[in-house]
Specification:
Helix 2 packs parallel to helix 3. The strands form 2 sheets. A 12-stranded mixed β-sheet has the order 9-10-11-8-7-6-5-4-3-12-13-14. The radius of gyration is 19 Å and the shape is globular. The protein has one domain: Aldolase class I (TIM Barrel). It is 24% helix and 18% strand. It has helices at 58-70, 89-96, 116-122, 136-143, 148-160, 180-185, 215-226, 292-296, 302-310; strands spanning 15-16, 22-23, 25-29, 75-79, 102-107, 126-130, 164-171, 193-198, 231-233, 243-247, 253-257, 270-273, 278-280, 289-290.
Length: 339
């Protein structure tokens, strides 16, 4: 298929669910494994290793991406696990760069220094880098690895090279919620985007209500630190997942992604493709549709994609409550979904 033949709108209908939400944003998990063991994402011992035949090959990633682009997807984000530990990452990146899409990546930043030229050559501009603490020892405690200096140096280099850098911090009560102001201070003179993410429930991360820091709590902390009249709301991007703000006179921005206490499901446009080739229509969804097996049998998977989206719930995968008494996650660990 040529780049022209995949141009959305010329030869395909868009992907919509039963609520009329158009889905043009695909998040592809390249690998379940990670070189960190973040407490909110992965069990300390990791997740069970599986035979590589159960996962998408480079060619299959590109083949399925082409199908989604034909159906109207125009933005692709690469995730993991940690996408940069995927063998042949540059091959996948170069292949995706041939499609008429905007490319982005979410990474823990450890291996970015190995791929600067590949990233620049692909035209990818948007880097989301996970950084849950500005203190090396606390970073090590959260991630169970001593890699802060390498990540921080790569963040600085990414800025120097002209990438749009967004730092993602998962806030956990009593762990890193005392660093909210410190993160925002980074935006005083730097064109950085900070995103505070509510701690979300997934398999193996021992989530409960007491550990989460809500949208309103974060804003109250910012009001006390910088003054209520200094917080300037930013225009929310179409289909944006965060409510964004700027401190008056600061160069960068901060935002809050509140999937638990203040969800944004009404404008959701995201589809997730797991590393083993299954489509998830919601981060919280317990149901999946296998695309990899029929693809390998030479079957057309377009109907499966559409059927999966038509089963999408209005909000949070059909979960009505996150109360400990009636919520039990049958979902994957976050590292096996791709965020």
């Amino acid at each position: 298929m040529t780049k022209e033949s995949l141009t959305p709108g010329l030869n395909s209908d868009t992907l919509s669910d039963s609520f009329g939400r158009r889905h043009n944003y695909l998040r592809i998990s390249l690998i379940e494994r990670c070189n960190l063991r973040c407490t909110y994402c992965m069990p300390e011992e990791g997740i069970p290793l599986r035979d590589k035949a159960q996962f998408m090959s480079h060619e299959e990633v590109l083949q399925l991406a082409g199908v989604f682009v034909k159906l109207g997807v125009d933005k692709i984000r690469l995730t993991g696990g940690e996408p940069l530990i995927k063998k042949g990452f540059e091959t996948i990146l170069n292949g995706l760069a041939e499609l008429p899409v905007s490319l982005a990546i979410t990474t823990n930043g450890i291996l970015l220094d190995k791929y600067w030229q590949d990233l620049l050559s692909s035209g990818l501009k948007n880097l989301n880098i996970s950084l849950d603490s500005l203190h090396p020892k606390k970073f090590e405690s959260i991630t169970r690895r001593d890699q802060f200096d390498r990540v921080w140096n790569n963040i600085r280099t990414a800025q120097e090279l002209g990438f749009n850098v967004r730092l993602n911090a998962v806030l956990m009560r009593g762990v890193n919620d005392d660093e909210i102001s410190d993160f925002i201070e980074l935006t005083r003179d730097q064109n950085l985007a900070i995103r505070f993410i509510e701690f979300m429930p997934f398999d193996g991360n021992q989530w409960d209500w007491s550990k989460k820091v809500s949208y309103e709590e974060i804003l109250n902390h910012v009001r006390m630190s910088f003054g209520p009249d200094e917080i300037i709301p930013e225009t929310t991007e179409p289909n944006g997942t965060s409510r964004n703000f700027r401190i008056n006179g600061f160069a960068g921005t901060f935002g809050i992604i509140s999937s638990v206490t203040n969800p944004f499901c009404d404008t959701c446009n995201r589809i997730r493709l797991t590393a083993d080739g299954k489509i998830k229509n919601c981060l919280f969804s317990n149901s999946e549709t296998d695309l990899l097996t029929p693809l390998r049998h030479g079957e057309n998977v377009e109907a499966l994609i559409r059927e999966n989206l038509l089963r999408k719930f209005a909000e949070r995968g059909g979960i009505s409550s996150f109360n400990a008494a009636d919520f039990s996650s049958k979902n994957r660990a976050m590292t096996a979904i791709g965020g």
